[in-house]
Amino acid sequence: MAQEVFDQVQLVLREIEGSQPRTEDELEQFRIRFLGSKNIIKPLFGEIKNISNDRKKEFGQLINSAKVAAENKYLEINEKLEEASLGRSVEAIDLTKPGFPIQRGSRHPVSIVMNEMIEIFSRIGFTVAEDREIEDDWHNFTAMNTPEDHPARDMQDTFYLKNSVTRLLRTHTSSVQARTMTAQKPPIRIIAPGRVYRNETISARSHCQFHQIEGLYIDKEVSFADMKQTLLYFAREMYGVETDIRLRPSYFPFTEPSAEMDVYLGLADERSKKLTKGTGWLEVLGCGMVDPQVLENCGIDSEVYTGYAFGIGIERSAMQRYNISDIRSIFENDIRFLRQFVSA
Questions:
Q1: Which residues pair with 192 in a beta bridge?
Q2: Over the stretch 91-106, which tens digit does the pLDDT of each residue have?
Q3: Cα(156)–Cα(133) distance, rounded to whole angstroms?
Q4: Which tens digits make up the pLDDT trace of 252-287?
Q5: Contacts (Cβ under 8 Å, ≥6 apart) of 245
Q6: Dist CA 214 CA 335 (whole Å)
Q7: Buried b (16+ CB within 10 A) or exposed e, 108-143
Q8: CA distance 51 to 63
Q9: How far apart are CA 135 and CA 176, in angstroms?
Q10: pLDDT digit string (tens) for 180-217?
Q11: Separation CA 63–CA 13 (nearest Å)
């Protein structure tokens, strides 16, 4: 009986060695017969109990060699079939045919305008400051002289995190100014570009998210005249060397006095008339001298230091430059719209 079992294993070994699968289907049949869950080698392991003790080791080695031989044969044939398949795939490719053209990418109009503004202010000593978009109430509102009961908060209704009344999406990059002023001693000269959020109804002229660049300059004896000259320089670099500006009194809780700045586009064409509503003037930013209370909130002595701040809406400038009539186009990621700016 024991010799018959040895002979069965020898037959299995010879069958494995003699097998030469030539196709994937034949190889799969080989795998099922010798390595599958119901392979012909598995029952032979159960015969070890019928082998005398002095030959159990010999039998174990023989049956293991059959299993190893089957595994090695399968891996060897499988590798050869894969190489042959790859070779056929390569041969099927016509290497003389032209490749697929790689479409030229484009910069987003907001990125184009933002980078240009950053470059302009960088030339006169402003450095870029960036920080988080999820802010706390103090840095976004209270530090900017807008406490909880201040009516100006109604103009900057935003999105709060779930189950939190103090964590929110920032409504302006003024929060970056607050963090800079609390962490750094004057002189401070920064611009803070980035995305901001407002809980507003989406329309052709407004959106729940947009981009700003805010500027801040704090030092001794900084004046309103310094701010006006800086903004005049920016306007002429951005809109043309002959550009005129005007400052109109306005209100912001974090600056006093405050102003809106307009640039003169003229009335030479219908587009300018439409953009300026027939006045020739286009509002581009808000500005003012930093309120002394804001300085004190951030640990800066308002008796020693003064400063000015300004904020520019980037989408408005992009829409003016590229004649975009609907702000929603900027955020829809329509490739047909974005392709217009490939050469910009």
A1: 214
A2: 566 677 777 777 777 7
A3: 15
A4: 989 999 999 999 888 877 777 777 788 888 888 999
A5: 228, 231, 232, 235, 261, 262, 263, 264
A6: 30
A7: bbbebbbeebbebbeeeebeebebeeebbbebbbeb
A8: 13
A9: 10
A10: 999 999 999 999 999 998 877 766 566 788 899 999 99
A11: 9
Query: Do 317 and 238 touch, CB atoms closer than 8 A?
Result: yes
Bridge-based pairing state of the strands 127-128 and 188-197: parallel
pLDDT at 344: 46
Determine contact, residues 125/189, Cβ cutoff 8 Å: yes
Q: Which domains does the chain have, with CATH numbers?
A: 2-92 (no CATH), 109-341 (3.30.930.10)
pTM given for the model: 0.66
The residue count for the chain:
344
Task: Locate 239 and state its tokens.
Answer: 């809109």
